[in-house]
Structure formats: C-alpha cells, structure tokens
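stage 2 :: seqdesign
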C-alpha cells in the first residue's frame, strides 16, 4: 500500500512534540479529537497532534485486501508527508494499536515513543465479536433512509454508545447514503472465521528487531483484550514497555476515562518537552 494516496488526517495544536493517533476497527481519527485538544492545551502549544483515518475508514482510501503491513506503510507515508524530519509519538487503540506496534517495529526512525491502548501483539482468533455489528450495518436499508434519525430508528443495536459509534460511519451524499468504512472487506475477513487477518498478529513482526524506544501499554480493567499471559510477548518486542491499567475502563479506555489517558500521555511525552 506504500505509495498510495495519503490518508485523511486532521491536525490539532501549533507547537510541541508531534503525536499521531490511530483508531480502532470502525473508528475514525476524530475519535481521538478530545484527547488531542486536551494535549494541545488552550493556546495550542502543548502538542502538535495528527488524528489519522486508517485505510478503509473515515475519509481515507479503501484497500483491495487487508494487511497490517499495508496499513503501517500507509501511516508511515502519511506521517512523512506531514513532516519528513519528525520523530513521532504514536498512539494506537485496538486495530490502530496493532498498526502502531508494527509501524514502530518496521520504521523505528519514525517513532520516538509508542502508546498501545488495550490490545496485545497476538491473534484474537476471529472477528466473532464484531460479526453482529457487521451484519447490522449490512442489513440497514440505505436506499430507503430519509434522514439520520430514520437510520438510528432502523438500526437494531440496543447499546446507545455502540449504535452511535457504528453510525458515525454512515455518510450522506446528496440524496443517497453510504458506509464510509469498507464494510465488504471487513465482512469478508469476518467470514473466514479463525483465518481472520484483522484478528491476527502479522507473522512478519517476529522477523523484525525489537523496538527499543519507550512504550506505554494502557489497558482497561474491565476489558479482556489484555491478559497477564501477554506480557512476555509484548516485552520481547518492546523491552522498555510500561503497563498502566485504568480502573473501571472497558476496551474503549480513552472514551471511558479521557482525563486519566490525557494525564498519562502528558507524563509519558514530558521528557520530549523538557528544555535542553
């Protein structure tokens, strides 16, 4: 995917360390806007953040087939296009966390520090936990929708937060509606069951040298995505990893506890803002 069109990004802040935020499956860069604005501060000089729409999401180009290597290459090209000489703090959640980990391993010169949010470098078996969401999205009769309220009424998801999260992918073009997320690609991957590439961890990562920069590994205490058994694999790839478990937070840690995540990120990037 390297050499493809740049990914869609939004910038927050005017000075300070460069930070890139990568979202999870069915997310968008703007999911990190609250955190990015808080880090920039009222005068915008606390950090220069870039929130990224990953391939197949938001306003970014779609790919023909999914690969973490392709995602990481697209992010690398996009960040270099923004600032060719910068070394970035890269923050990734879930799918974006796997992409961020591979980016750091493949392009260590591009990443000064890494923050991985509620995901581990392992296979999760399948996309079974997302299959219901994908089916709900596929069953929404786009041609019949009259407005967004109509879409919300027809969308059969009982959890209001999940419903709002998924429906952010619905976009109106004139009189028609479409999904911004590459739904067919994700559905095809989910249909492969335990052969899912999205749920897996790329085998190519094992052939790469460890990333020797500082790494912050954030987990939600109410999430099952990270277990104690994941630490050896994480430490093998990222020997300077430090763990932080946010009490009461689910998989969407930055949504459940934004103030804690902001403070943790401030402390983590503080050495980069120290005077020489």
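stage 2 :: out
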């Amino acid at each position: 995917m390297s050499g493809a069109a740049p990914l869609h990004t939004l910038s927050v802040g005017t000075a300070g360390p460069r930070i890139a935020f990568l979202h999870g499956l069915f997310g968008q860069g703007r999911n990190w806007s609250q955190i990015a604005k808080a880090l920039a501060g009222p005068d915008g000089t606390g950090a220069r953040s870039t929130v990224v729409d990953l391939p197949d999401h938001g306003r970014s180009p779609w790919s023909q087939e999914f690969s973490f290597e392709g995602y990481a290459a697209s992010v690398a090209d996009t960040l270099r296009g923004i600032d060719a000489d910068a070394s970035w703090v890269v923050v990734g959640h879930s799918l974006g966390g796997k992409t961020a980990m591979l980016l750091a391993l493949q392009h260590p010169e591009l990443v000064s520090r890494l923050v991985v949010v509620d995901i581990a470098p392992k296979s999760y078996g399948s996309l079974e936990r997302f299959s219901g969401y994908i089916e709900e999205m596929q069953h929404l009769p786009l041609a019949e929708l009259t407005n967004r309220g109509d879409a919300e009424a027809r969308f059969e998801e009982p959890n209001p937060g999940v419903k709002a999260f998924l429906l952010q992918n619905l976009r109106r073009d004139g009189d028609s509606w479409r999904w911004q997320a590459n739904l067919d690609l994700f559905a095809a991957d989910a249909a492969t069951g335990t052969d899912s590439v999205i749920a897996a961890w790329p085998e190519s990562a094992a052939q790469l040298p460890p990333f020797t920069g500082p790494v912050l590994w954030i987990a939600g205490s109410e999430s099952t995505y990270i277990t104690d058994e994941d630490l050896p694999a994480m430490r093998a790839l990222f020997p300077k990893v430090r763990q932080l478990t946010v009490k009461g937070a689910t998989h969407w840690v930055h949504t459940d506890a934004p103030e804690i995540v902001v403070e943790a990120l401030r402390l983590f990037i503080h050495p980069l803002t120290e005077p020489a």
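stage 3 :: structure notes
- The CA atoms of residues 212 and 238 lie 6 Å apart.
- DSSP finds ten helices and nine strands in the chain.
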